[in-house]
Amino acid sequence: MKYVIAFAVLAAATTAIAAAAPRPVLIGRDGPEADACGVIGTVTGLNPHGNNYLSVRASPNTRAAERDRLRTGQRLYVCSTSADENWLGVVYRHGPLGNCGVTAPVQHPRPYGGPCRWGWVSSRYVDVNAG
After folding, report:
1. 131 pLDDT tier (thresholds 50, 70, 90)
2. How far apart are CA 88 and CA 92, in angstroms?
3. Sign, Cα dihedral of 103, 111, 39, 93
4. Within a 10 A sphere around the Cβ of 47, how many other Cβ atoms?
5. If we measure between CA atoms, which residue out of 62, 57, 98 comes closest to residue 80?
6. I want to staple 36 with a disulfide (CB 3.0 to 4.6 A). Which of 43, 46, 102, 122 is the partner?
7. Strand partners, 57
8. What is the pTM of this model?
9. Rounded to an integer, what distance in angstroms lies between the CA atom of residue 69 and that of residue 57?
């Protein structure tokens, strides 16, 4: 019995660690003929009486490390989605979007490497504007 409990605890801990492990945002998922990140979104629907920011996470999970915080109106490039579509892999810079290197095609899907910021946000708070 105690081995079963120990195994269950170990399995739960392993699952939690894996869920919170950093996961890069992939660009170029739509193929070499499309922009590396072909969708633009805007942060919206935040609670002004609550935290009033959208956490940017290191992976698509609420247990993942918070990398940044975005405010209502922040524009961003949407590059990836989680399997359950609850999370978006995004690329952004504070202020105007500017050149983040994702508006032209790339030959093969790859992790985003800069120069802008990147991470995962809840899809619930992003309104897709273009793409």
Report:
1. low
2. 12
3. negative
4. 10
5. 57
6. 102
7. 66, 120
8. 0.83
9. 9
Token pair in block for residue 62: 């609420």
pLDDT tens, residue by residue, 73-105: 999 999 999 999 999 999 999 888 889 999 999
Question: What are the tokens at 102?
Answer: 């994702």
Tokens standing for 75?
């524009």
Per-residue model confidence (pLDDT) at position 61: 96
Report which DSSP code applies to 30: T
Task: Determine the Cα–Cα distance for residues 53 and 86; give it in Å rounded to an integer.
Answer: 17
Q: Where are the beta strands (DSSP E) in the chain?
A: 26-27, 39-43, 54-57, 66-70, 75-81, 87-92, 110-111, 117-122, 126-130
- Contact (Cβ atoms closer than 8 angstroms) between residue 68 and residue 56: yes
Residues whose CB is less than 8 angstroms from the CB of residue 69 and which lie 6 or more positions away in sequence, other chains included: 53, 54, 55, 56
